[in-house]
Give the backbone structure.
Amino acid sequence: MRGEERTERGSTESLVVYVVTYPEKNYVEWVRSLVERKLVACVNVIPIRSLYRWEGSIVDEGEVLLLMKTSTSKSRALREVISREHPYEIPEIVEISPLSVNEKYLNWVVDATS
């Protein structure tokens, strides 16, 4: 990408955490609290439709995909909070380590979660 500084530091200092939740629950308040507690710098909220097997049946329902941007230093604490506070019996918590991240954005993520 021309005109942007990129860094290979992204793979060791930042994460995108992928979490799905109910759309009708008050997830916005919970997501806001994650930002306020500095566990995440930012969360993108994307409505999705999910089809999956649960307890022997195929489920087809609307959900909300939460893409949480955080620093690796907050990874463990964030996973623990999600596991404790998420409304699902088995919350989906997937950490994605980027290969590279825009330098200024990475600095912002690290600063916002410090």
Remarks:
- The helical segments are 10-13, 27-36, 75-85, 103-112.
- The domain at 6-112 is CATH 3.30.70.120 (Alpha-Beta Plaits).
- The mean pLDDT is 90.
- The chain has four helices and six strands.
